């Protein structure tokens, strides 16, 4: 499976995963507490700077963000159609900042670190008998690992369409994409069960 993590020695790489995730959570809260375009614009500039620090290069950086950029573009267009320009601008800035911050954290934090932090965060709930902390950490780790895989499956389906001269349509893309994703999920589940991971006690 592919991973979103990028090897490097930037300040974000050296920062503790707990600090990065806590900072991301705090930044998300603060972004939705302010409506100032100036403050949000400043936050966007800082987020761009953080993401630009990653050892990816412009082309790869843009490629990694492209799926989310399309989503933000659709949301922004809809916002400008149904809301005032100020409201739509605020929403666009918030989403853009969150996207860049989340991408920066994900690119500088290994999946194992995500799993460890999520498992520790779920310990209080486990002591209350509500969840299994190890399962929560594993689930979050798998979600993060599957993001680049799903993107890769989409690109494979798209290339197959183009090679056969078939026009891209939602139904002809979504169905094989779901099948490929479920197949990958089944393979991962089989590997997990073979190692007895889900039977281990945290």
UniProtKB/TrEMBL annotation:
Keyword Ubl conjugation recorded: no
Superkingdom of the source species: Bacteria
Pfam families per the UniProt record, alphabetical: CbiQ
GO cellular component: plasma membrane
Keywords linked to the UniProt accession: Membrane, Transmembrane, Transmembrane helix
Compartment annotation: Membrane
Residues annotated as signal peptide: none
Membrane topology note: Multi-pass membrane protein
CDD domains tied to this protein: EcfT
PANTHER family in the record: PROTEIN ABCI12, CHLOROPLASTIC
Family per similarity comment: Belongs to the CbiQ family.
Protein name (Swiss-Prot/TrEMBL): Transporter
Protein's organism: Pararhizobium antarcticum
């Amino acid at each position: 499976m592919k991973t979103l993590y990028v090897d490097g020695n930037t300040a974000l790489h050296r920062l503790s995963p707990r600090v990065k995730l806590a900072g991301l959570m705090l930044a998300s809260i603060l972004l939705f507490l302010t409506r100032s375009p100036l403050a949000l614009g400043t936050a966007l500039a800082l987020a761009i700077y953080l993401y630009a620090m990653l050892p990816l290069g412009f082309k790869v950086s843009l490629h990694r963000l492209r799926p989310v950029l399309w989503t933000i573009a659709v949301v922004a267009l809809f916002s400008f159609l149904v809301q005032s320009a100020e409201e739509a601008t605020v929403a666009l800035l918030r989403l853009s900042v969150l996207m860049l911050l989340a991408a920066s954290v994900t690119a500088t934090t290994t999946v194992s670190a995500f799993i460890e932090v999520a498992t520790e965060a779920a310990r209080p709930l486990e002591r209350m008998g509500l969840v299994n902390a190890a399962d929560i950490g594993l689930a979050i780790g798998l979600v993060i690992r599957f993001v680049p895989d799903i993107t890769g499956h989409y690109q494979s389906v798209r290339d197959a369409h183009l090679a056969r001269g078939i026009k891209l349509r939602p139904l002809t893309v979504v169905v094989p994409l779901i099948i490929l994703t479920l197949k990958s999920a089944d393979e991962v589940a089989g590997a997990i069960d073979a190692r007895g991971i889900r039977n281990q006690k945290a």
